[in-house]
């Protein structure tokens, strides 16, 4: 009889895979094993990693954010650049979910299955965007991209509390604010297929930020920390970006931010 898949070890294998199509297929297989009940979690396992994290293709070329080109969305190339930048965000988001899954020991099984769900949904988003890029005549890797999301993943690898505070509920939560105006621009340019993909991404991202909020509060409770005071201290220590409005307060509410936290934003 086959042994059930151990989620953390398999998540690490998915994370190290450089080819996007192979990576998304491996995540889908892991998520299916979980649905089939063919899984277990070794929450205390220690892993030795000898290859660079994350596994990624040779392209896109990574450059500082200011060097990522901007084009008008009225041209096909301009829209392709926008879809490419979104695909790159989702590629990084898939990797960050896998990293949250394998890296941090000693958490309840529900933590690991939550992050597997996020990885599966981010992989789906990436696949949709990559397919739409091909419809526009381009491929993932054709344009330069920046890596600021992954830099915060790297910074917070020593503390799961910092990771939950500053990746899902800070950087990913910015997506809740950014997607509606971007969707309006893409729809105005006539690309309704891309607009429909953004509707799916916004719906799912609310759930991903909610997972970050829930586990952040769980960890604060376990460490007897006040969530708001701890967040302010972590944002300062790890040099998190200062959040600028306008904010999607309705989506942030659904994602589990408290009224006090929303009031502090403004």
From TrEMBL:
Organism: Massilia atriviolacea
Protein name: Ferritin-like domain-containing protein
